[in-house]
Amino acid sequence: MVRTSICGAGVNPSPPAGRLSPPFFSPSAKYFFKMAFYNGWILFLAVLAIPVCAVRGRNVENMKILRLMLLHIKYLYGIRVEVRGAHHFPPSQPYVVVSNHQSSLDLLGMMEVLPGRCVPIAKRELLWAGSAGLACWLAGVIFIDRKRTGDAISVMSEVAQTLLTQDVRVWVFPEGTRNHNGSMLPFKRGAFHLAVQAQVPIVPIVMSSYQDFYCKKERRFTSGRCQVRVLPPVPTEGLTPDDVPALADTVRHSMLTVFREISTDGRGGGDYLKKPGGVGEAQL
């Protein structure tokens, strides 16, 4: 019997039929590992931030500390974040930011573009998320209980006063929950009522689709590029609560138009939405 060695030739033999790659190399395993590290790393960074933020106590200025500590995460995952339109932020007045909400990765785009003295409005459950919840509380994040409408309305009224008296900006995800389907859910109107009540502008921010590099359903998480587009502010002076439904619809339409544009131009979320019958297309 003649034995032929292929090792010296630098050729790797094919694995025997039926042999599978180690499970820890599978795309699904990589996805779960990356998400576990992402969440764990944020919790660890929060532990480091808490004593620094505690010096001021609960203060919106602590958000600068969280932002500085989180900015590097995009490099760990090979995600390039491009910001356009940052000049649209009003220079010296309160306003309400509204943004689309795709996943927990929105944190990367938010930290990239977050203006000064701006804090998110978050669901109350986040307050109990260990070190992250305490860090967010120290940074002035506003928590609302969405299950108790009366409390949510009361909090929004207090926020309207805070906007004007303390020169604070707030960041709201008007879809109300994460949306993984490549489009935008209908907008809840709380953010728009808030802006009208305080008579401050609305600044829409659109993050392009993550479908080229991230998909929860497919358990896929690779490197990629995301574009964050800041749109011109929408004034609310002179508007009343009766104008809120039309205001919310107008802002959503403009954001959805830009979302489709930057998610298909090769610079945002790739060409996912170009596919015939794609989710983003079907929603219009």
TrEMBL record:
Annotated SMART domains: PlsC (SM00563)
TM region(s), chain numbering: 36-55, 126-144
Any one of the GO CC terms: membrane
Note whether Transmembrane occurs among the keywords: yes
Biological or metabolic pathway of the protein: Phospholipid metabolism; CDP-diacylglycerol biosynthesis; CDP-diacylglycerol from sn-glycerol 3-phosphate: step 2/3
Q: Which UniProt keywords apply?
A: Acyltransferase, Lipid biosynthesis, Lipid metabolism, Membrane, Phospholipid biosynthesis, Phospholipid metabolism, Transferase, Transmembrane, Transmembrane helix
Q: Which domain of life is it from?
A: Eukaryota
Q: Which InterPro entries match?
A: AGP_acyltrans, Plipid/glycerol_acylTrfase
The protein's enzyme class: transferase
- Pfam families, alphabetized: Acyltransferase
User: Could you tell me which PANTHER family the record lists for this protein?
Assistant: 1-ACYL-SN-GLYCEROL-3-PHOSPHATE ACYLTRANSFERASE, 1-ACYL-SN-GLYCEROL-3-PHOSPHATE ACYLTRANSFERASE ALPHA
Instruction: Report the function annotation for this chain.
Output: Converts 1-acyl-sn-glycerol-3-phosphate (lysophosphatidic acid or LPA) into 1,2-diacyl-sn-glycerol-3-phosphate (phosphatidic acid or PA) by incorporating an acyl moiety at the sn-2 position of the glycerol backbone.
Name-wise, this protein is: 1-acyl-sn-glycerol-3-phosphate acyltransferase
Q: Which gene encodes it?
A: AGPAT1
